């Protein structure tokens, strides 16, 4: 109860001291956030208490983001544990058949018309994840957002063969995603692709996702990781040709969680940081 009261007072303070972006009905702030192994409280990979969910909620609420694509959500009960502390937010969860699912959370004034799985990003079963896509109307525009969590390259890829296979799988996912993006461009439909890409287009020949720049623009690719300034950011928000003119200049940023929380708190929040951009439909 003590923590809940402190959280409510803090959110009221934040709400009173921020210039809320949702006061402008023609601007949209979009974010992506990998919340490391957000669990349902039963045999979780990361053991969290109510205070930790409150810390995550505080970071989301104080970001001024209006719609977030989330990654690494165990199940619907996991997102309910978080949304309990976000009373002005709704969510759309869709199970992709793994323990690391995707979810959208958004301010309650946004009305999602549909959510679907993007099946063809599961290029190999049990090795890669499906994506998800939502559609909604905003500022008299149809907005489509694809949420992805592409194949990682990790310490478990401990042989040259495993390492090469992870590259091949991520590249295959990028090709599938590029084909989808081309279709949206050809039909002149607005598209945002966001999520954990586990890669950066700037890596040139070493990048498995650089092909996506054929049909998408990555305003976040110059950002550096919040872990260390010499690491590339791997969480991105990309937009297609129809939305490039709507991008608010220099609005792309990464919210450094180290500024907001102590080291021991960070371990129970996430090993990623939120990445955001702002789109302006007044243009």
What does this structure look like?
The longest helix has 27 residues. The chain is built from six helices and eleven strands. The chain has one domain: Endonuclease/exonuclease/phosphatase (Deoxyribonuclease I, Chain A), CATH 3.60.10. 40% of the residues are buried. α1 packs parallel to α2. With 283 residues, the chain is an alpha+beta fold.
Q: How much of the polypeptide forms β-strand, as a percent range?
A: 25-35%
Strand order in space, largest sheet? 3-4-2-1-11-10
Radius of gyration: 18 Å
Number of strands: 11
The major sheet is characterized as: 6 strands, mixed
Q: Report helical residue fraction.
A: 25-40%
CATH architecture: 4-Layer Sandwich
Number of helices, counting only DSSP H or I runs of 4 residues or more: 6
- Please name the fourth-level CATH homologous superfamily: Endonuclease/exonuclease/phosphatase
Distance between the termini: 46 Å
Structural class: alpha+beta
The CATH class is identified as Alpha Beta
Mean residue pLDDT: 92
Silhouette: globular
* Low confidence ranges: 4-22
CATH topology: Deoxyribonuclease I, Chain A
Question: H/E series, N to C?
Answer: HEHEHEEEEEHEEEHHE
Overall domain count? 1
Keywords, separated by commas or semicolons:
Deoxyribonuclease I, Chain A, single chain, 6 helices, six-stranded mixed sheet, 283 residues, alpha+beta, five-stranded mixed sheet
């Amino acid at each position: 109860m003590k923590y809940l009261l402190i959280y409510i007072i803090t959110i009221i303070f934040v709400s009173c001291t921020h210039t809320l972006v949702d006061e402008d009905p023609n601007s949209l702030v979009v974010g992506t956030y990998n919340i490391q192994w957000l669990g349902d409280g039963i045999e979780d990979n990361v053991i969290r208490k109510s205070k930790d969910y409150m810390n995550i909620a505080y970071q989301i609420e104080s970001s001024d983001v209006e719609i977030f694509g989330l990654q690494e959500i165990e199940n619907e009960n996991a997102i309910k544990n978080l949304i309990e502390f976000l009373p002005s937010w709704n969510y759309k969860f869709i199970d992709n058949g793994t323990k690391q699912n995707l979810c959208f959370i958004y301010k309650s004034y946004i009305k999602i018309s549909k959510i679907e799985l993007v099946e063809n990003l599961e290029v190999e079963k049990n090795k890669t994840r499906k994506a998800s896509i939502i559609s909604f109307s905003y500022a008299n525009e149809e907005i489509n957002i694809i949420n992805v969590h592409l194949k990682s390259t990790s310490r478990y890829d401990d042989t040259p063969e495993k390492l090469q296979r992870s590259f091949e799988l991520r590249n295959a996912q990028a090709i599938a995603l590029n084909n989808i993006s081309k279709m949206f461009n050809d039909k002149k439909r607005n598209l945002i692709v966001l999520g954990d890409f586990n890669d950066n287009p700037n890596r040139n020949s070493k990048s498995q996702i650089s092909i996506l720049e054929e049909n998408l623009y990555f305003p976040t690719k110059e950002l550096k990781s919040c872990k260390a300034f010499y690491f590339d950011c791997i969480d991105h928000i990309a937009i297609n040709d129809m939305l490039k003119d709507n991008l608010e200049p220099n609005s792309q940023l990464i919210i450094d969680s180290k500024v907001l929380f102590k080291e021991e708190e960070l371990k129970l929040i996430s090993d990623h940081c939120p990445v955001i951009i702002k789109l302006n439909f007044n243009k």
